[in-house]
Design brief:
The chain has about 300 residues and is of the alpha/beta class. The protein has 11 helices and 11 strands. The longest helix is centred in the C-terminal third of the chain and has 21 residues. The model has no long low-confidence stretch (mean pLDDT about 95). The chain binds nicotinamide-adenine-dinucleotide (NAD). GO terms for molecular function: methenyltetrahydrofolate cyclohydrolase activity; methylenetetrahydrofolate dehydrogenase (NADP+) activity.
Length: about 300
């Protein structure tokens, strides 16, 4: 029997588990606050940001939204981030990526105060993660660790293969796998677009995390019997639906499910966890900035 890993259920647990912490902070006069900054008219980015705002409202986090014209000078974005850095009611800042070409992405990532960098993308926070002394774990790999916890997936001593080496998923996931820490201690291989024989690696893996952004390219014949398969991909493919597309993962679900011991579906697997862990990081940020002690789920 294959375990279908229910990200919606685990995300609901995380969100409910944050309730007491949010209440404690709010009663102390420090309702956690997350600022989202959007400088794009890309519909997907707009959707992501509005989902994040809605998530905040649902759990009692104050959400502040700043929208900038994608053609505005880059300084407007840099100045916005500075203002948010200085605002005591804002504990987390999220600049929705990608930003327009005339904006220096690295400068934006560097300009968010590390204590408010709830995405975990500031170089200081990346360095701390690599050093095993993390402040914020990036939301997607952090959420995947929560799924491992909920479904008793053993990472210690496991062969883990991460497909993809992006700064937001692949690299931090691999870094968490190699930490001498819970949900780490895995023997870790990172595959990417230049990997010569991907299947030779994935077939040896106890855990495969697919984060390449290529629809359905990890198939059942590339997996070891009983492997845990985590599908991070969210890809729009043309389909005969009302919207004219559907969302599919990087894993070909039907064939993979026949072989896997556990698998995350798309949607309803990793996606809801990424959203939940943004709330988690925001509550952690609020607690650390205000000195109000809370217990995190
Ligand atoms: P990215 O485009 O930044 O990186 C993709 C990586 O995959 C690259 O490192 C590349 O080397 C590798 N790659 C590309 N083609 C490959 C191939 N054929 N074989 C092996 N490796 C290959 O992507 P990203 O931002 O990490 O996102 C990856 C996917 O995950 C996308 O579909 C994205 O939408 C999705 N995503 C989902 C969540 C979530 O919460 N579920 C969060 C972030 C990203």
């Amino acid at each position: 029997m294959t375990d279908i890993i229910d990200g919606n259920a685990v995300a609901t647990d995380v969100r409910e588990g944050l309730g007491d912490a949010i209440e404690t902070l709010s009663e102390a006069g420090h309702t956690p606050g997350l600022a989202t900054v959007l400088m794009s008219d890309d519909p997907a980015s707009e959707t992501y940001v509005s989902m994040k705002q809605r998530d905040c409202e649902e759990v009692g986090i104050e959400s502040h939204h700043v929208e900038l014209d994608p053609d505005a000078p880059a300084d407007e974005l840099y100045d916005t981030v500075e203002d948010l850095n200085a605002d005591d009611a804002i504990h987390g800042i999220l600049v929705q990526m990608p930003v327009p070409d005339h904006v220096d992405t690295r400068r934006v990532l560097r300009s968010v105060r590390p204590e408010k960098d709830v995405d975990g993308f500031h170089p200081e926070n990346v360095g701390r993660l690599v050093a095993g002394n993390e402040r914020f774990k990036p939301c997607t790999p952090h959420g995947i660790q929560k799924l491992f916890d909920a479904y008793d997936v053993e990472t210690e001593g496991a062969e883990a293969v991460v497909v993809g080496r992006s700064d937001i998923v692949g690299k931090p996931m691999a870094n968490l796998f190699i930490q001498k820490a819970p949900f780490g201690n895995a023997t870790t291989t990172v595959c990417h677009s230049r990997t010569k024989d991907l299947a030779a690696h994935t077939r040896e893996a106890d855990i495969v995390v697919a984060a390449a952004g290529v629809p359905g390219f990890v198939t059942g014949d590339m997996l070891e019997e009983g492997a845990t398969v985590v599908d991070v991909g969210i890809n729009r493919v043309d389909a005969d639906t009302e919207k004219g597309y559907e969302l599919v993962g990087d894993v070909e679900y039907e064939s993979a499910e026949e072989v896997a011991g556990a698998i995350t579906p798309v949607p309803g697997g990793v996606g809801p966890m990424t959203r939940a862990m943004l709330l988690w990081n925001t509550v952690k940020a609020a607690s650390e900035q205000t000195g109000v002690d809370v217990t995190l789920p």
